[in-house]
Amino acid sequence: MGVIKLGNYPIGNGQPPFIIAEMSGNHNQSLEKALEIVEAAAEAGAHALKLQTYTADLMTLDLDYGDFFINDSGSLWKGQSLYRLYEQAHTPWEWHKPIYERCRQLGIIPFSTPFHPKAVDFLEELDTPFYKIASFENNDLPLVRHAARTGKPLIISTGMATLAELEELVTAAREAGCKELVLLKCTSTYPASPVDSNLLTIPHMRELFQCEVGLSDHTLGIGAAVASTVLGASVIEKHFTISRAEGGVDAAFSLEPAELKLLVSETLTASQAMGSVHYGLSEKEKSSLKFRRSLYISRDVESGDALSEDNVRIIRPGYGLSPKYLNQLIGKKVTRAIKAGTPVGWDLLLETV
């Protein structure tokens, strides 16, 4: 796999994870709130802020019965029609430009998830640097191909997709012109349980499809996301809000600013801690050698006295011989009087017993 860049950020190949703050509908239909979310995400250290680009009419039918009404008692959105939910959650298209501008002013990359080819065309006008395909659209191969034809990197969530579907998806994207592909392991429940996250899929998916792999995480907190870093996740996406208490369609499983900041710092730490396979003394450990245990004279001895467990001990610091030599030293006679606290060295001993 070659080096992939998202904006100016190289990902993978030992780089820290690329952190995406997903605004979704947490702006609660307020442009002012949306811009506050941008500012909070930038301050927390996120690399990118993601929007969702659709209209209710491009998503579904304006019906409030049957398949178009949410009756699932376990859903955060029970009691709403799909159309009304998307009306409530969508980001008005006229907001995209000021949101993009604020992101760029603050040094955070703006991009979006298009849910229809018309959304891709609109986002192209804003010079969107790369695109995200959502899990629920990963079976919409015409949309995937349309986004891939832009020639820009694609990030695709893999929630619910079987291996056969993923093979079709990846093939469609690559045949349509996608050269830089990132797949995100995703569990499409809201919120998701860590038990269902199956993060061990990440290295398997990376090997199988020979592309960068990350995590689109809907669990609460940051534990799963930090763990994914150790398994090679090069991109991490989390929903983001200024305050869960303010509500919003995705607020219940969104990070707040302090949590996002912690995610950025802890995934960086996890990435740095991976290092490489290494045993033995590191350069920075050399100064700590003195704190290891070694052999010391523990009681004053006279010239010709034999060493014994009464006058030699294994203690700190580490300036004497290694403890492994204790049995060889017991019974040996010393060449001179030695005070307690002297590190044991071979030069203290007579050549014969």
Automatic annotation (TrEMBL):
Source organism superkingdom = Bacteria
- The segment(s) forming the AFP-like domain are 294-352
Q: Give the signal peptide as a residue range, or say none if absent.
A: none
Return the Pfam families for the record.
NeuB (PF03102), SAF (PF08666)
Single Gene Ontology MF annotation? N-acylneuraminate-9-phosphate synthase activity
Gene3D superfamilies annotated for this entry? Aldolase class I, Antifreeze-like/N-acetylneuraminic acid synthase C-terminal domain
Gene Ontology terms: biological process: carbohydrate biosynthetic process
Q: This chain belongs to which protein, by name?
A: Pseudaminic acid synthase
